[in-house]
Amino acid sequence: MTTSPTRLPDSCEGAVRYDLVLAETELALVPALCFATGAVLRIIGIGPGEVTVDREDLVSRNYAGGVVDIRFVRPGTVTVRIPQEGTTYPITVVVR
What are 25-32's contacts with CB under 8 Å, separation 24+? Predict the structure, then answer.
């Protein structure tokens, strides 16, 4: 069987809103996500300025009332870093 190196996993979501509720999520178990361009990663239960990304050119961010919305505006790979209880967890997001 031959696979294309540019083929994305079958588990890749579309342009959805993906809610990540920090009070209910073990971040160590969320190492990677895959979305289509236009998707939003909504991180619920965090302070302003705590979430960082390594590719500002691929995202647009908004913070309001303990919620960070990260919209993926261009294809590529973004590492989202979320601090929780003294540890910073990196989540790799592939955007198609």
Answer: 27/82, 27/84, 27/89, 27/91, 28/89, 30/89, 30/91, 31/90, 31/91, 31/92, 32/91, 32/92, 32/93, 32/94
Domain assignment of residue 4, yes or no: no
Strand partners, 89: 82
Q: Is the residue at 8 inside a domain?
A: no
Q: pLDDT-derived band of residue 67, with 50, 70 and 90 as boundaries?
A: very high
Q: What is the C-alpha end-to-end distance of the chain, expressed in Å?
A: 23
In the chain, the amino acid numbered 25 is T
- 9, part of any domain: no
Query: In CATH, what number is assigned to the domain containing residue 58?
Result: 2.60.40.2020
Residue-wise pLDDT tens digits, 8-40: 445 799 999 999 999 999 999 998 999 999 999
